[in-house]
Structures are given as C-alpha cells and as structure tokens.
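Entry 14. Structure prediction run on the chain below.
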Amino acid sequence: MVPHGSLLYILMRRPERFPRAAVMTYAVFDIGASVYWLAPTAPPWYAASLAEREGHSAKDVRRMMVEYGEHFWRDGWGPLYSVFGGNPLAAMPSLHFATSLMAALLLAEAGPLTGALGATYAAVLGFALVYLGEHYVVDLLAGAVLTGAVRRLGPHAEPALARFARAMAALEAVAHQES
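Output returned:
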C-alpha cells in the first residue's frame, strides 16, 4: 500500500513528477520480479522448515508473521492469510523493501516531511521483515541495490524506452487499421 499510496500522493501534490515516479517504482518491482523467476530463493522461514523436513538441523526460525497474525486478526487471519500468504520462492531481492525505499526517495523529492515519513516507514519495514523471518538482511541489501540502480540508470534507459513505446504505438496503429 505504501508505494501505491506514495504514487497517489505524488500524483495529487506534484503531478509533473508522477510519470517518472510511476516508472521508477514499477521498474523496481518488475526487475525484481524477473529476478524471482530467474533465480528463486527461499525466505528464512521456508528454508528452515525445508531443512527440518529433510532431517537436517536448522536454526530455530519461526514465521513470526503467522504467529502474530493469528493472535492479532483472530478469526479473520485464515481468509486474510489465504489472500496474502507467503511466497516460498520470492525472497531475493525484497520487493517489499525495495519498492518502499523507492517510495521514500521519491517522497523526499516531493518534500522533506514526506521524505522523512517515507524513510521512517522503510526503516521500520526493513527491521520488521528481518525480525518476522520474511527476509534475510542480504535480501534487503539487494533490494536497496536494485532501487539505487534503477534511480541511477533510469535516465540512461529513457531514450531506448521512448523508442520502444513509439514502436509499440505504431504497431498498435497498424493492428487497428487491419481490424
């Protein structure tokens, strides 16, 4: 919700910044999701449970989100978890952290107060993701590197992306003429 809400805030308060902000945010997500497909990795809670099932000694890693979620949400936890349940093969990089970090950076461009709020959220989220057993610290670091790379390399990719968009528009125009 925070990355999307941040984009909504930018759209409403700084509409001239919105196209770039949206592209940067979704580039982080799309590139990170591609990494999941190319090199799936297991989050701590899943790796520990898999090691135990295979008879190996494993660190005592519990999935705190489930324990606390059941306690906090009570009867609503089952339906909620079935919708938002964990993905056992999508840990590296942490897209929760990467997209929230990108939101914080974009909010900082929109103003110091919103930037501070975004940075605080990203820091608390990062701590929670590790504490709750959802990610390793290295997953967060990889998310931060991905975010930094998109911010740094994004402007260099803009001309190629613009050419691609024009080519797709031309192809779409041809397709509409034939139908």
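Residues 137-178 form the longest helix (42 residues).
Filed with the rest of this week's runs.
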